[in-house]
Write a structure and sequence with these properties.
- This protein has nine helices and no strands.
Length: 174
């Protein structure tokens, strides 16, 4: 599905890991795919039956991809199901936490959720979490300006991972 591929491509953008300080680990990459899947699913929820159907496909592809990745990493067949169940549970928790953050006007809850989930609550990452939360809000606005049918077809536009001025600020803060 082109839509899922576009979300994963965006999540793998080097700017998240270089300028944004997301850990370049299996967990960090999962978190960025989860952020982008969440943003896409958030938009598709409002897209009527077609949007909900596409959202289910994105969700299914996300966990099929995780299953395949775990197997490639050498996780035994007997453990894969348990790990996928745990990942699905954590993904649902993230969706709820991010929804709570989007439902508030200030960024405090969203930044705290991003800090905890993406950066592991490391205080030195607070400025990165704030920038990533801003990116998420901007991307959410952009997605809501796009036609659902276009999104479903895979013609989707995300915000730039970090504006050059944000990247400069982040690098100077290090």
């Amino acid at each position: 599905m082109a839509l899922y591929s576009a979300a994963v491509r965006q999540a793998r953008s080097p700017a998240f890991y270089l300028a944004g300080g997301v850990p370049d680990t299996v967990e960090g990459r999962f978190e960025m795919v989860a952020v982008h899947a969440y943003l896409v699913l958030r938009r598709l929820r409002e897209g009527g039956p077609e949007g909900k159907e596409a959202g289910q496909k994105v969700f299914d592809l996300l966990f099929d991809d995780m299953d395949q990745t775990l197997r490639e990493m050498g996780v035994g067949d007997l453990s894969v199901g348990k790990k996928i169940k745990a990942l699905a549970s954590s993904f649902y928790g993230r969706m709820q936490a991010y929804d709570a953050g989007f439902n508030e006007e200030d960024d405090g809850t969203l930044v705290a959720s991003v800090l905890r989930n993406v950066y592991g609550s490391e205080e030195q990452s607070a400025h990165h979490a704030a920038s990533l939360a801003s990116y998420m809000r901007l991307t959410d606005r952009l997605l809501h300006e796009q036609d659902v049918a276009e999104i479903i077809s895979g013609r989707i536009f995300f915000a730039p991972p970090f504006e050059s001025s944000v990247a400069t600020e982040l690098n100077e803060a290090r």
